[in-house]
Give the backbone structure.
Amino acid sequence: MVKKVYNVAIVGATGAVGQRIMDILQDKNFPIGELKLLSSERSAGKKIMFNDQEITVEVASENSFSGVDIAFFSAGGEISTTLAPIAVKQGAIVIDNTSAYRMDESVPLIVPEVNSDDLKEHQGMIANPNCSTIQMAVALQPIKESFGVNRIVVSTYQAVSGAGLAAEKELENQTKQYINDEEMSAEILPVGSDKKHFPIAYNALPQIDVFEDNGYTAEEMKMINETKKIFNDETMSIAATCVRLPIVTSHSESIYIEIDQKGVSVAQIREVLEDAEGVVLQDDPNTQTYPTPLAATNKEPIFVGRIRKDLDNERGFHMWVVGDNLLKGAALNTVQIAQSLIENKLV
Amino acid sequence: MVKKVYNVAIVGATGAVGQRIMDILQDKNFPIGELKLLSSERSAGKKIMFNDQEITVEVASENSFSGVDIAFFSAGGEISTTLAPIAVKQGAIVIDNTSAYRMDESVPLIVPEVNSDDLKEHQGMIANPNCSTIQMAVALQPIKESFGVNRIVVSTYQAVSGAGLAAEKELENQTKQYINDEEMSAEILPVGSDKKHFPIAYNALPQIDVFEDNGYTAEEMKMINETKKIFNDETMSIAATCVRLPIVTSHSESIYIEIDQKGVSVAQIREVLEDAEGVVLQDDPNTQTYPTPLAATNKEPIFVGRIRKDLDNERGFHMWVVGDNLLKGAALNTVQIAQSLIENKLV
């Protein structure tokens, strides 16, 4: 039997997420025929090793997608808006890492552990959710399936790498300035394109992405709207407060949920999480076992701990959920969507 | 008219909070007759300037409190348990900064903006609440008074200085180790006396204080129980998740509340906060105005921003509350209790 292979393109191949997509494709022996690495003019011409092959990065253009089976887009919303529909028209399935198409009704928004069935409806374009949304969905899926979840209140503890390599560099520079008793210079966080910038080192910024008219940030509204779409449940109550912190990688989330079923114990919640796909339970107060962002970095699963019953609402539970925002929060979930397409013969 | 003066003792005078109490007494021209600085044997003999007077630190003992009107205790629970009752017996009013007496029914637990009336019942001992409790109580008091608050879900973002000078030093050392690509050594956080220690630099630790049998940490239970006592309201539902972060000073809190009254707007919440004692409103998404721990450090008030109505529960509101944990969270509140005693002729 000859194993089927697929021609793959990565748009944004030289970026942080693009690089990680390449690493994961290689690690997981993804069945690749030809691999095209695409970028802006600035990075074109670079040579990158994939397996034992040297590949030259080409400029992404309207003519890049003929013969491509799967195109991973991770070069910002504008590039996706311009080129992704062209790639689809040329016969590629696009898996888009930007927010450009996530809330488009004709585009499935996929966390494979939760809603891979929605892939069956795809029309060529598939969206990868926001990093903070993905890890919450993976952790809550087994609980929702077993006991129902009708309410979520989440406060996030997000890493700077979610804002790109320049934000990581900014934290590094500010830390050195702080240690040397110099004034910290801020040009990127909380949002590069916004009017004001504040230091992130030794600080907490309660703004991720720009503010919307209702006083919530775009990041908070992504968590709210994308979670409802992924769970295909418009009736869930969801509230989010998103905060950037001086952490390099891995997002943490303090999550309060209310479930449908009465009389459920912490032990039962732990049990369904222990058996769940993509989740690792780290929850034992007696041995101080709980997830932390440093320990979760470069790991594939989503880690869950600090599970407690609310002291007043018997359907209420609190938990602490941590995941690598660049892996499961971005590159890994993207590749898993492609794997799921292949497994279900949808490509 | 001769201004009345009071003989004051500070137990734990050489510690971080003791030092700040001295600074505040001096800044506020507290009416001091004689000032006694007390400490363990290790620090006794040190000479400290207060106003223009050099004071020699003495060993705190059973014989330290004769003639003392007000004794500030800030040297750990054990010292308070041993010496505070003796100080009271010798006629001093004790204002205790430890958790030793906070939940004692005969001891008022005071945030002056909220419940200074409870001082009238004092029997010589008064307790200063936990830092994360104080700032939440100050922010919620005006809202509770105007609209009723029956439910709180809080996730904290707490600074290392809350764990003492050694924890601050640990963050500094780990940061340098991280920058130099060395392994980080952890000996103090999350809890010096607990079994395991984890790095705090570039990390988030969902444990402050030890775990209790119900899976909550002692810090979380302090926030829950102390808040009920300060508001004199056992019926409030309160849940807390407490997290330590690589921030030097000032705690932040993501707070969700449900109020009694229907139809209240964000504008109305802002209005009562604007007029409130001890609160500064910093809340304008259009100009990216919101509190941050770096900006709140060395400031006296509690800062409130990011006020939003919940999208599903019309009695639900979210907000972001920041305060200097060493000032209003500790030393300042302690001195304000003493000022309130004097104003109300209770000393």
About this structure: Residues 131-147 of chain B form the longest helix (17 residues). Chain B touches chain A through 59 residues (CB under 8 Å). Chain B has two domains: 6-128+330-343, 133-325.
